[in-house]
Amino acid sequence: MSGGEPVHIGSIDQGTSSTRFLIYDHSAHIVGSHQVEFTQFYPDAGWVEHDPMEILESVRTCIAKAIDKATADGHNVDKGLKAIGLTNQRETTLLWSKSTGYPLHNAIVWMDVRTSSICRKLEKDLPGGRTHFVETCGLPISTYFSATKLLWLMENVDAVKEAVKAGDALFGTIDTWLIWNLTGGLNGGLHVTDVSNASRTMLMNLKTLDWDQPTLKTLRIPAEILPRIVSNSEVIGQICSGWAVAGVPISGCLGDQHAAMLGQACQRGEAKSTYGTGAFILLNTGEEITRSTHGLLTTLAFKLGAEAPTNYALEGSIAIAGAAVQWLRDSLGIIHSAGEIETLASEVESTGGVYFVPAFNGLFAPWWRDDARGVCIGITRFTSKAHIARAVLESMCFQVKDVLDSMHKDAGEKGEVKNDKGEFVLRVDGGATVNNLLMQIQADLLGSPVVRPADIETTALGAAYAAGLAVGVWTEDEIFAEKAERATIFNPELDEELRKKKLESWYKAVTRTFDLADLSL
């Protein structure tokens, strides 16, 4: 990649439980970073909220401290920082006052299920039922997406009702909130979102890449509160005074899973799975919109410039992956740190017949059952905490397997790229992929190879790529070139007959989770 004078690109990575700022050099190596965890609020069963002001402050802290670290290590970031990219947790929804700059309510997080009744009513009232908007936005009616969260806020929060009526409300996902504040806030802050985040609201037309007017009319959402939609790689605006990086352009913005696709350099027919709080599997379908008939979402992959072609994707979203490990740690105390689960699970060679389905807030793809709740079955007196730990790891891999099975059916042979042995290779990333046992289980249950890159933090890297591309630091050819860094390949070792039996048992366990949401407390 380009050399010469010091060149740096910054990347804001705003996730579900933490915020990070990373600084890359022209070779896409990290020269400084800082991470801050923020508070998760659970006001009621199935409800999850974040404080937008706390998130904003976490970004401010991370930027300042990452720059301090890089500077201390001899990197001239002040002069070399050419652009900043942003990637964020998708679907998480908030409204704020354009006159005060303050949120009108806490942000409602993507996994929150308080909008179940709104979803049921829409399904009942609209002629297309659950799939009424699929033709335009690619998404079913679900608690997952921003539109239903926005409706809940408009119906249930007086401050929101009043602000919308007075023309004082601004809607956005977390990217929109951060960009508005980074570019001036009350003093001319830019109210924008990007095509990938907009594609997760249920309100954007996948073909026109603009807000779908018939959908807005049906849901009675005023267009004035919505941000302007831009591509993933273009100069959006300059960072305002008061920030440690004032004057630097924001030139890349992608939802986290789309950023990971770019960081993994996924081209048409290639797929990646990111293991974080949830797990998200995306297959790049190129410039073609592929409709799913097997429970997946049709969504946008990325659009690398205002005039660039649009890449689309099939996506399978899993609500609970790494969050189940956090549950073992924080709620049950079975482990003291997330890293301990690999050691504990390795104490046994199998789960001893235990199957764990983490349907804490329902099941996402490919089941789409918000009436599901978590189960752990097959427990005997022989069962130990090691068996439970291994069952939790297996649950993450079984869920990914379910999604990939649907993906293979939807994409067909022509829609997938295979290796020399005729195998479909899954690229993986995210914090949980450091767990070698997890990756081996994944390969075993898929019956095909899993490839882990040398740098597993591909989400932040994807945002940096998008920002650097817009300001000429990198070219698309450089971003999508085969990387020399050594990847780790996990090949399946499990007997085929045993694999089939385990999958049958898993499906049996999944069906046990259905229709449990109304159990009395």
Automatic annotation (TrEMBL):
GO terms for molecular function: ATP binding; glycerol kinase activity. The keyword Metal-binding does not apply. Residues 272-470 form the Carbohydrate kinase FGGY C-terminal domain. It holds the Pfam family FGGY_C. Pathway: Polyol metabolism; glycerol degradation via glycerol kinase pathway; sn-glycerol 3-phosphate from glycerol: step 1/1. Residues 10-263 form the Carbohydrate kinase FGGY N-terminal domain. GO terms for biological process: glycerol metabolic process; glycerol-3-phosphate biosynthetic process; triglyceride metabolic process. Its EC number is 2.7.1.30. It is an enzyme of class 2 (transferase). It catalyses: glycerol + ATP = sn-glycerol 3-phosphate + ADP + H(+). Keywords: ATP-binding, Glycerol metabolism, Kinase, Nucleotide-binding, Transferase. One of its GO terms (cellular component) is mitochondrion. Belongs to the FGGY kinase family. This is glycerol kinase.
